[in-house]
Design goal:
The complex is a heterodimer of chains A (333) and B (297). Chain A has 333 residues and is an alpha/beta fold. Chain A has a six-stranded mixed β-sheet with strand order 6-7-8-3-9-10, with helices on both faces. Chain A folds into two domains: 11-229, 3-Layer(aba) Sandwich (Rossmann fold), CATH 3.40.50.300; 233-299, Alpha-Beta Plaits (2-Layer Sandwich), CATH 3.30.70. Residues 316-333 of chain A have low confidence and may be disordered. Chain A has twelve helices and 14 strands. In chain A, helix 3 packs across helix 4 and helix 5 packs parallel to helix 6. Chain B is mainly alpha-helical. Chain B has one domain (24-63, 78-293). In chain B, 69% of the residues lie in helices and 3% in strands. Chain B has helices at residues 23-37, 39-67, 82-102, 104-111, 114-119, 126-153, 164-195, 199-215, 228-236, 238-250, 266-293; strands at 254-257, 260-263. In chain B, strands 1-2 form a two-stranded antiparallel ribbon. In chain B, helix 3 (82-102) runs antiparallel to helix 8 and helix 10 crosses helix 11. Chain B is elongated and about 65 Å long. Classes of the chains: A alpha/beta (333), B mainly alpha (297). The A-B interface holds A 50, 54, 57-61, 79, 82-83, 87, 89, 91-95, 97-98, 102, 106-107, 109-114, 117, 124, 127-128, 130, 154, 156, 158-159, 161, 182-183, 186-187, 190-192 and B 1-17, 19-20, 23, 25-26, 29-30, 33-34, 37-38, 112-114, 116-123, 295-297.
Chain lengths: 333, 297
């Protein structure tokens, strides 16, 4: 009953729909995850990310569509799916009154791991997430980052083919988040496929091989971080030249240039296409007319720009506190 | 980042296999860890039944024994004091409370997200019900033994005049009855807990249940003079069935208490036990249904 073709996607979702009463939380979603990649769902809270993840990890019954995880249909073979996956849930799900070691032991027992293997795995994983010194500590005495690390260790106890991470760094401070990303990349480099949901742009950007932007229960676009940014076709090129006025006049005639904005010492071009491809053309055009370029700077759109472009808004208010706080900060103090 | 994982090599776990039949032991193991770790909960749950015996038991028996002292007693009858009589009721009452609250851990696990880990694992959901049942039964056994020992210390005539063998049979009989009764109410409690959202709601439902179950039973007084409807309820009340069993094993088949003559045949006892088994089976079915339907995300 193993997946027939090793090259076939490890997660395959087709035309997935899910409603809560009248509310359509997931509206005809299709995507696939390749073996060994880190795949992200990026979207605001309430976009339907958790619903999809809950269907994939068999906690929510599939209503419509197909969902194949690790070669097994989530509806007909939930047991096999459960055996193939590890999960780190959105909120901390650790018993406050159990020790670090007991948490892992309980999980191993739940999955019926043989004693020897369970003990070996616990020691190995405590090393991986650097919690050896804390193994007899009650989880309520751990810091937020330690708790998250312990949960990742727990998710890896059974050596899953796929690790699901639902908002893995929510509520963690920047340093801890960065360290978590390192752990996640490390786990991935050992061969575990990672499916993660996040509403942090930087997290999706830095961590994932591919990203699906999801909003209102639909996938808006899927691609690598670079691909997504390039699709905007709005790279920004900043120039300072020996004759700005003449340069602007010349460049207005270049088809790839969409818009030109004057700046105190230079000007900014907004280009239709991938800026790296337009740059040589611009340099050529100016050189031929004898205009010297003193400064040139290409700015790629950030994931924020991509997100705003495709969802038509900045992150929605509800729940997205950290990102929101950033936007509300008064500029220029 | 230090150590490398020794991949690949899938877990050679055996879910659904023979060993998975012991999955409930994992749930049991964890619940017992919590039981001994919460010191206040542990001490109070052990102290509470003893306090009932010490205060309510002694207070009531000093009154009732004086009131019933003048009542005519059949010649040769085995008369027992009120403390001995209600001791059986206290064992039952403690078991009832402990069992009805035994499922509350499921509600907490659900609300704190811990249940998701369990439900997303390959373990069969029935094992949650059985695991909680087993730990609840263990707690009730400990409490029942404490009440018996403490009761004897403060003067209850438990196992009075019994041979050592009959005492052992008596203890085993009591624990069998207590265990079956506890299972029934633990299953009920688990079923309610998995269906409810808030601990307050659960507490309300349980309080509502304990009242009629406890007072429409023969825990503290004879039920023979109850008005008709209350009498019918009390006869089929699992609590009454349990207490009948306990009294049979701790006092004997023939005794007089509170001016009332009690005689139990072995048939009565078997009938009571069969009633408790039926009750537990129904409650398990109920819990099974609720757990299959439960969606925890």
């Amino acid at each position: 009953m193993e997946p027939a073709d090793p090259e076939s996607p490890i997660i395959r979702v087709e035309n997935l729909r899910h409603s809560y009463g009248d509310f359509r939380a997931v509206d005809n979603i299709s995507f696939s995850v390749k073996k060994g990649e880190i795949f992200s769902f990026l979207g605001p809270n309430g976009a339907g990310k958790s619903t999809v993840i809950n269907i994939l990890i068999t906690l929510l019954a599939r209503q419509e569509g197909t969902a194949i995880v690790a070669g097994y249909d989530v509806t007909t073979h939930p047991q096999q799916v459960r055996e193939s996956i590890g999960i780190v849930f959105q909120d901390i799900t650790l018993d406050r009154d159990m020790t670090v070691r007991e948490i892992l032991e309980f999980h191993g027992r739940l999955y019926n791991m043989p004693d020897e293997m369970r003990k070996a795995r616990i020691d190995e994983l405590l090393g991986l997430v650097q919690l050896e010194a804390k193994k007899n500590e009650l989880t309520k005495r751990l810091s937020g980052g330690m708790k998250r690390r312990l949960e990742i260790a727990r998710g890896l106890m059974t050596r899953p083919t796929i690790l699901f991470l639902d908002e893995p760094t929510i509520g963690l401070d920047p340093q801890t988040r960065m360290r978590m990303w390192e752990y996640i990349k490390n786990v991935n480099s050992e061969g575990t496929t990672i499916f993660l949901t996040t509403h942090y742009m930087d997290e999706a950007d830095q961590l994932s091989d591919r990203i699906s932007i999801i909003d209102h229960g639909r996938i808006v676009i899927t691609g690598t971080s670079g691909e997504l940014k390039n699709t905007l076709g709005r790279d920004l090129i900043y120039l300072e030249t020996s004759n700005n006025g003449e340069a602007v006049r010349l460049l207005k005639g270049v088809g790839e240039v969409r818009d030109i904005t004057q700046k105190p010492a230079g000007f900014v071009l907004t280009v239709h296409e991938d800026g790296t491809k337009v740059l040589p053309l611009i340099i050529d055009t100016l050189r031929k007319s004898g205009i010297e370029i003193s400064t040139i700077n290409l700015k790629k759109p950030t994931m924020d720009d991509v997100f705003v472009f495709y969802t038509g808004k900045e992150l929605r208010d509800e729940g997205a506190a950290p990102a929101r706080a950033l936007h509300l900060r008064p500029r220029g103090r | 980042m230090t150590k490398a994982l020794h991949l690949p090599g899938r877990c050679t776990c055996d879910p659904g296999g023979v060993k998975m039949a012991y999955g409930f032991f994992t749930i049991y193991w964890r619940d017992m860890i919590r039981f001994v770790r919460f010191k206040t909960l542990l001490v109070s749950s052990l102290l509470q039944p003893a306090l009932w015996m010490a205060f309510f038991g002694i207070a009531m028996s000093s009154n009732f024994d004086r009131l019933t002292a003048g009542m005519p007693v059949p010649a040769g009858a085995h008369v027992v004091g009120y403390l001995t009589f209600m001791g059986a009721g206290i064992i039952a009452m403690t078991t009832l409370f402990t069992s009805l609250f035994g499922g509350i851990v499921i509600l907490f696990d659900k609300n704190w997200g811990l249940m998701r880990e369990i439900l997303a694992s390959p373990m069969d959901r029935n094992h949650i019900i059985f695991g909680i049942g087993l730990s609840g039964v263990t707690k009730s056994f400990i409490q029942a033994i404490i009440i018996m020992v403490f009761g004897i210390l403060i003067g209850a005539a438990f196992f009075a005049g019994f041979t050592p063998l009959r005492t052992i049979v008596g203890i085993c009989g009591i624990l069998t009855f207590v265990g079956m009764f506890a299972l029934g109410f633990l299953f009920l409690s688990a079923a309610i807990a998995i269906s409810m959202e808030s601990p307050e709601g659960l507490q309300g439902v349980i309080t509502l249940l304990t009242m009629p179950i406890f007072f429409a039973s023969n825990a503290l007084y004879p039920i023979d003079n109850f008005p008709e409807i209350l009498g019918i309820i009390s006869v089929y009340n699992p609590m009454t069935l349990l207490i009948t069993g306990i009294r049979y094993f701790v006092i004997g088949p023939d005794f007089v208490a509170m001016g009332h003559h009690y005689t139990y045949t072995q048939g009565d006892i078997l009938w009571s036990f069969a009633g408790l088994v039926t009750f537990s089976v129904i409650m398990f079915t109920f819990a099974y249904w609720r757990f299959q339907k439960a969606v925890v995300t």
